[in-house]
Amino acid sequence: MSDTSPIAVVLAAGKGTRMNSDLPKVLHEAAGKTLLAWVLDALSDAGCHDQIVVVGYGGDSVRTDVGARPGVQFAVQQKQQGTGDAVRAAAPLIESINAIGDRSRPVVIVCGDSPLLRPSSIRSLLEAFQSTGAACLLGTAITEDPSGLGRIVRDADKQFVCITEEKDANESERLIQEVNMSTYVFAADQLLWALERINTNNAAGEYYLTDCPKVLLDAGKQVDAVACLDPSETLSVNTPQQLVAVANALQTVQR
């Protein structure tokens, strides 16, 4: 492994209360594999072999299920205080892995309940990140139905401004069709710096990972958003019905 190989952080701490099951959400199966296994396999296929899985509810079960996959380490989110808090839990491991070598490594951050994320999309995002030299690159998608998803706000020159979560969005922002796919690449050192500067001043009272790009932008760092993902990759699992829909999609999508 070169010292610039990507580090992956997988957010897998949620219980998934709407699943009506005691099983951690990421351990539900679709098309023969757990949701988490689909994501970890996609990351491996895309060259992300150092993987940090952030666990919380049912963490021991997740560890047991993942087993002895090469390159996988675990971080624990003690309380459900948002996606930014989850990545903060992984920060010591990110810092430790990034210290191997003399250059800041890319950190890919994805959700553990998004099994339709394709290795080709992750590779495209990493290639774009390397070519732009950005501190942060967001993988986005254009969709006719953006409901429930964070909107990508751009200025008059089409430059990235911020991500606005739907619950915080105003009427005009809700009309935006470019959406956050919860798939990011950060330079490791820039991510660690930004995580120390996010707060809970939002409708949910949580630490949003989505605030990190804005923190970097406000500090004069380069932040870009690239619509390189397919809208189908937004399909995640929060209900038994969505699990069925994702399983059906996995049967037909070429990975």
Which strand order does the major sheet show?
5-4-1-6-10-7-11
Beta-strand proportion = 15-25%
How much helical structure, as a percent, in the residues?
A: 25-40%
Rg: 17 Å
Overall pLDDT level:
94
DSSP strand tally = 11
Task: Report how far the terminal alpha carbons are from each other.
Answer: 24 Å
Under CATH, the homologous superfamily reads Spore Coat Polysaccharide Biosynthesis Protein SpsA, Chain A
Helices and strands: which structural class?
Answer: alpha/beta
Which term fits the overall shape?
A: globular
Please describe what this structure looks like:
- The structure is a single chain.
- The protein has 255 residues and is of the alpha/beta class.
- It has seven helices and eleven strands.
- Helix 3 packs across helix 5 and helix 5 crosses helix 6.
Keywords:
about 30% helix; 7-stranded mixed sheet; about 260 residues; alpha/beta; 11 strands; single chain; Spore Coat Polysaccharide Biosynthesis Protein SpsA, Chain A
